[in-house]
Amino acid sequence: MMIYNQYKRRMASILFYIVCFTLPMGIHGQNKQFTLDDLIPGGKTYSKFSPRTLKQLQWSGTTYLYAKGDSVLGGKPGKKSKETVLFTRASLNDALVAAGLKTVSGLPAFTVTDHDKTELVFESKQVRVQYDWKAGKVVSFRKVDENWKNCDWTADNKWLAFTEDNNLRVVGPDEKVVEVTADQDKGIVNGQSVHRNEFGISKGTFWSPNGNKLAFYRMDERMVTDYPIVDVTARTSVANPIKYPMAGMKSHEVTVGVYNPSTGKTVFLQTGTPKDKYLTNLAWSPDGQSIYLAELNREQNVCNLVRYDANTGKREVILFTEEDSAYVEPQNPVLFLPQNSSRFIWQSMRDGYNHLYLYDINGKLVKQLTKGDWIVTDIVGFDASGKNLFYMSTEVSPMERHLYSVNLASGVIKKHTTLEGTHQIKLAPGGEAFIDQFSSQHNPRTIQVTTVASGQSLELLKASNPYKDYAFPEIVTGTIKAADGTTDLYYRLVKPVGMDETKKYPAVVYVYGGPHAQLVNNTWMADARGWDIYMAQMGFVVFTVDSRGSANRGAAFEQVIHRNLGVNEMADQIKGVEFLKSLPYVDGDKLGVHGWSYGGFMTTNLMLSYPDIFKVGVAGGPVIDWQYYEIMYGERYMDTPKENPEGYKNANLKLKAGNLKGHLLLIHGDIDPVVVWQHSLTFLKACVNEGTYPDYFVYPGHEHNVIGKDRPHLSEKITRYFMDYLK
């Protein structure tokens, strides 16, 4: 009987397609229909639907440049500036041949490492090349072995740090490889990112400003439990265990070494005990004599900014301490003023919002530079005098990002972007101009070069709508009140293509709900994903709301989830459901929910906590039991299982397995090192014990996210599930 009912639903869906897409629908009926390959990254035709852009757009001194075909074009700021061809692939190949190097078949990806010179750096055929585009010649080149990982060059490109396996090496101008560490135990890792990439950590080596010393992380994981990851591609499956410290369990221990190439010696910073604290946000002093660390206790509620002597490793001073009853989460290292090495900028949430603070090197607060119920999202640079600091913030709206500058002496703040939307800025080295790439809900992409003093802009690109020939849904944004009755939450609503206001449509809530994520922005299509557009084409309403607990709204907004994951976030999502049900075209009896990772946790939780509201859910890579999650993230938001047993119990979805009524599909990558496979497998066991019946799908060979050519398959799988059970 179940198979027969599924067959009837499937046939009804097919008839719906035939009726909807063959009968006239006004302008929509005359437009083309999307495939998932058109809309999903990894799809065969996905690239043709990306808004047009300028490749490799960046500054080289006061010249902006970008690649177009086989040429690199450039110009100066100003409305009357004229672009010229700086060089071509042919002229680059001539220079490569003259240097005895192999030619390139296309323009390589290049970067600028020294804005005082007209030089670009790129790598081709295992050779790193410095090319002077103005002189039209190769300045220098160095061979790079394909087995070298985590490569990190000095600013002058003379020294390279890299890792082989878990050890650190350096190679200098003489091209002789020097062994910095020689640890034989695989449980010791040198020169790589630590603390599972939390706290803004993304690398493991740090050259001093003048390139004469190298600081690096050394992580001892020998005390951390091995976690089994199984490779099923071998004839006999192979175990590839990882070190995965779960909440409340033994953590790894990190130290910081400082290697001096001139002496060949390494000293380690005397960071002391306890050893399982977090050493984050490493920064050098401008003179290369000191190292600054933000040191966080394992509880993550006390942060010390500490200065060390880089030559001896001795701790010099604790400059200041920040504490919070929930958690402190430093994300950015100290930033010294370019013209005053005795002062630095520190970013902090201490007043409830991320703002900028000016300190002297003795730890004395000079002044708070920014203040308000909004956050600074990024620092983009200084002007040539070092007196004005440029930064991005949400002051206009949490949904937008704009460029501002603050005068460090007077405190006067100026806004430099005027058009609505989300701006991405590349500041010229002297701060006299900036490249501004921005979009908004109805603007796919605009690129301008703006002069700071005059505010005049030169438009380099105005992208057209890549979907203009296709049936496209209406996208609406707005606000609703959170469950607390006062906080505004931003939502995005994608309506069905060719919607008939007199009919009712099924709706899917796409959810994340956790920290460090914001799904609704004033960007192209209001940040709607390709899958949202496809589901609208299939006749669904797709709704997303950034509940409390998500990013970029300040400490109180985010920390409402502390020790009680899934409580306030779900309450806000239900407020979104109430809004959905109030819409005359939404079928309140046909509501689904979908999310990945934290969103997978939310999806499963919503299906189990509100079984009479949600009929269908698809949870990808879901956290099921937070005691199985790693300590850095898990203990920040939940403390340890011993300290917070009630919170862990309330968020343990295995204990709710018996509540399942609707159709729930769980999806997991079998080598997921983030939300380990154990989560969804143990949930299946709990459902068996309780006599409930979820569905399950595994992507072999994929980690936490299904990417590449398999991603359209994932989207098709999810779509079919909603078509089968919610349509």
Automatic annotation (TrEMBL):
Residues 533-727 form the Peptidase S9 prolyl oligopeptidase catalytic domain. One of its GO terms (biological process) is proteolysis. SUPFAM superfamilies: alpha/beta-Hydrolases, DPP6 N-terminal domain-like. It comes from the Bacteria. Residues 126-444 form the Dipeptidylpeptidase IV N-terminal domain. Transmembrane segments: none annotated. InterPro entries: AB_hydrolase_fold, Peptidase_S9_cat, Peptidase_S9B_N, Serine_Prot_S9B/DPPIV. One of its GO terms (molecular function) is serine-type peptidase activity. This is Dipeptidyl-peptidase-4.
